[in-house]
Amino acid sequence: MIQDDNISILSQVLTFWDKLESKDKNLIVDHTINTTYQQGNFYSGENDCIGILIIKSGSFRIYLLSEDGREITLFRLEKGDICVLSATCIFENITFDVNLSAEVESEVLLINPKVFSKIASKNIYAENFLYKEAAKRFSDVMWTMDQILFMKFDKRLALFLLNEISRNNSNIVYLTHDQIAKHLSSAREVVSRMLSYFAKEGLIKLSRGEITIVNETGLEKFS
Amino acid sequence: MIQDDNISILSQVLTFWDKLESKDKNLIVDHTINTTYQQGNFYSGENDCIGILIIKSGSFRIYLLSEDGREITLFRLEKGDICVLSATCIFENITFDVNLSAEVESEVLLINPKVFSKIASKNIYAENFLYKEAAKRFSDVMWTMDQILFMKFDKRLALFLLNEISRNNSNIVYLTHDQIAKHLSSAREVVSRMLSYFAKEGLIKLSRGEITIVNETGLEKFS
């Protein structure tokens, strides 16, 4: 059983809360847990349908995985975001599976998929909430697809670094070349080569496990 | 004003029809046209929001277009299918644009987006219909993305040819190598090389503007 502060989060995030009968509100509350994921992969869409996540702290990466182990990051979720793609078993119309990974230790509310599904099947507002959340992620995925398929790699890498420093409020990016390659669905060698180029241009400084952005304006010219 | 047979199509395809007041049914009927598109591009998401399409005959290709003119086919729509991505201005949560092209002369019912949007804003069933249709296409796009990003080209081309002959009920594919390249987001040279390989393996026969599948089982081994 979750506590009042978490019930308050549910009632804010689930925009259809006012359209629920009391017993359905209780049903959701009784089948929501407050849990923490350690850094690392924890969800494989092919086998799991853990439920709807509401992210309280930390961040998650949602990605595709190929048979030979290649990863494509589709989008990320952070505090306040909702993940419905960790409950694709609820949806009639969604037939693909994604994987989730906690990027840091992350606290979430997790709503049981069967309970949510039961409520959505009789409450159109709850069902519509699910599909609208999915549509948001559709937009995220289309943006990523556009990036991967159409954009030149210097542009993508520059944009990625700029996003990172703005996201973290710091001009240092603590990621290895290999990690960046995974984020950009590229190879480590390609990332290293382009980073060396940026470094030679005086846009960034490279040291072990970190990249310091020294000329943001210069980097923006690429993006 | 559309005729009774078209109203009957609307009432079947729009699964929320029974949940509409009479005046809203009339509003939709009054703002739906029966129209024919000639073969070719007719819709650019960046500028247009023509409305919701219900395909009566023919087929459409929905694709992304890069700044430098490259195309990526996302999915196709055929008789009985509904297209809501030709009305993205209706959606709060969809922020990307696609392009549409009629592959052959195609007849459609076209519902005015402003009228639909007005109805969806006060009728949750109409709104939910939109988002559920969008979710179907989300699945299509994810499938395509998986294909493009992860699959080896021989597999993709074999699968494409098999899909074409099953779709057209004929073992001849009337497409140029350039057209196939566009469908598969590849280059003409790559397509030609792989087709020659398939021909040498005795799976297909090549002649000007057409490809005859002579060994379907053999092709299936690649796909």
Description:
Two copies of one chain form a homodimer. The first copy, chain A, has 223 residues and is an alpha+beta fold. Chain A has two domains: 4-147, Jelly Rolls (Sandwich), CATH 2.60.120.10; 151-222, Orthogonal Bundle (Arc Repressor Mutant, subunit A), CATH 1.10.10.10. Chain A has eight helices and eleven strands. The first copy, chain A, has helices at residues 4-13, 22-30, 113-122, 124-150, 153-168, 177-183, 188-200, 216-222; strands spanning 32-37, 40-44, 52-57, 59-65, 71-78, 82-83, 99-102, 106-111, 172-173, 204-207, 210-213. The interface between A and B is medium-sized, with 32 and 33 residues. Chains A, B: It holds the Pfam family cNMP_binding. Chains A, B: GO terms for molecular function: DNA binding; DNA-binding transcription factor activity. Chains A, B: This is Helix-turn-helix domain-containing protein. Chains A, B: InterPro entries: cNMP-bd_dom, cNMP-bd_dom_sf, Env_Response_Regulators, HTH_CRP, RmlC-like_jellyroll, WH-like_DNA-bd_sf, WH_DNA-bd_sf.
